[in-house]
Amino acid sequence: MIIDIVLREFIQAEHIAIITHIQPDGDAVGSCLALAEILKEIGKDADLFCQDRIPASLSFLAGTDQFKSETAGRMSYDLAIAVDCSDKERMGACAAVFDNAGNTINIDHHISNVFFANINLVDSNAAATGEIIYQLGKARLGKLSRQTAEALYTAISTDTGSFCFSSTTPQSYRIAAELMDCGIDIEHITNMLYKTNRVERMRLLGKALQSLELYENNQIAVLTITQDDLISTGAMESETENIVNYAKDIVGVKVGILLKETADGSVKASFRSNGGVDVGKLAAQFGGGGHRAASGASMQMSVPEAKSELLTAVQTALGEMIQ
Ligand SMILES: [Mn+2]
Question: Which of these CATH numbers, 3.20.20.60, 3.30.56.10, 3.30.365.10, 3.90.1640.10, describes 2-194?
Fold first, then answer.
């Protein structure tokens, strides 16, 4: 069993580095913290690495202050573990720590994973890397500590969109149930993760919703956020995240678009599809990227120009749809 092989490597290693991806999310951070706790219970201290800062929304988890950037910490480990990374590049500057290690393990759930380590524990059926870390902890320790369970619940809840995405499996729920058995406070975690909007963000959301425009018999919804909106509300750039979903979630809408004016007057566009239109292709037409259902592109033009070009492209895509 690959799990036994991985556990054996944990036990044999002396100095362990755990590394996750740039722009870390709940799965990245929660999985790393849980893995570090599991290793501690085995009697191993591990150093945590992430190139970028841990989002404030995750700071309620114990240990988030322990993450180092690549320049800090012991640079030579006998074991480096990449967590939630589909390839080495995802680690950014921290890939150097991985490259310098004597032995390497890759723990991930992305179907695109390229098996870049000596040992690759990759399960694309897992909805989150946290589910795989859970299996490791359970196999070795039986029951997990409350702190570990809290980190893993965060990992799984965030990567499944609160158990709503199609990636959610019966196993995701089973693991969540077992994590509840470890004494975690679901209401507290949910409040910390999802109910911490700053008033500035709510005012920005209000402005964005005011800007709503509908086209093509209400099949295309466009929201716009200008630089003025950001400045007058005091909201941060990062607080525009997820606003595009308000456009997508309108009944009858097939494509939701958010146009964000950047400081230099150009546009960052986000696209969401309810199926039918492949917004990954739409983004690619404008030099961007993403998936069928979610994508984005940077457009070197004004908001009105971007809107008119995008409307033409989406109208064409809607016309090509099998009705
Ligand atoms: Mn993940």
Answer: 3.90.1640.10
